[in-house]
Amino acid sequence: MTPVDAPLVLTLALDKPSFQFFNRLRQAHFPAERNFLEAHLSLFHHLPGTEAPCIADHLAQVCRAQPPLTLPVTEVKMIGKGVAYVVKNKALVAWREQLAHHWQAWLTPQDRQKLWPHITVQNKVTPAEARALQQQLAQDFAPFQAQGTGVCLWAYRNGPWEWLHDFGFEG
Questions:
Q1: How many other C-beta atoms can be found within 10 angstroms of the C-beta atom of residue 51?
Q2: Is the pTM of this model over 0.85?
Q3: Which listed residue, of 18, 44, 102, 135, carries a Cα 20 to 30 Å from 55's Cα?
Q4: What's residue 98's pLDDT?
Q5: Angle between helices 90-102 and 52-65 (to 10 degrees)
């Protein structure tokens, strides 16, 4: 991979049925004029594009050893002006912490924070709209399991993201 002239975003790849479930909700409830992206679980928000070759090499190495992750989806939560599904997995948080330690010199303050795994299906609406959707989704919610199947590396292009590479978990 060559250096990239934009910040990098790293997301967790989900199994197809889970991705489709979250993406349908995002398409239905995220304000259309602000919805440039598909559903995702962000791991890092702003890695340096100039370091893309090093980042990609490291991801290829660690993903080869990482088995797929079972991701308990435990609740529907209001997040201020939006709604997210909460994912609870200590192994995911620990794996992400190892990446953060390896890339420590490159991390922004946001990416230095501990990971709170979630998938946002609505954002940038009024608190009342978010509360209404959270209550609606929570009525029918039953905890379920998704699968983390790898990671996706993206270039942030001031709105839409440009896909760069997928790294599957092979362990």
A1: 16
A2: yes
A3: 18
A4: 98
A5: 140
List the beta strands (DSSP E) in 15-135: 41-47, 69-78, 83-87, 118-122
Question: Dmax over Cα atoms in the chain, in whole Å?
Answer: 47
Place of tokens 């929570």: 138
Q: Which residues contact 83 (CB under 8 A, 6 or more apart)?
A: 29, 76, 77, 120, 121, 122, 123, 130, 133, 134, 137
**Joined tokens for residue 113:** 């924070």
Taking residues 13-26, what's their average pLDDT?
98
| Rounded distance between C-alpha atoms, residue 119 and residue 26, angstroms | 9
pLDDT digits (tens, 9 = 90+) for 27-44: 999 988 888 899 999 999
Q: Which residues, in sequence order, are CB contacts of 67 under 8 Å at separation 6+?
A: 169, 170, 171
Contacts of 149 (CB under 8 A, 6+ apart): 13, 14, 15, 68, 168, 169
Classify 70 in phi/psi space as left (phi over 0), alpha (psi -120 to 50) or beta: beta
Q: Are 87 and 119 in contact (CB under 8 A)?
A: yes
Place of tokens 């259309």: 32
d(CA 64, CA 47): 21
Q: What is the mean pLDDT of the chain?
A: 97
Task: Say what the pLDDT of residue 159 is.
Answer: 82
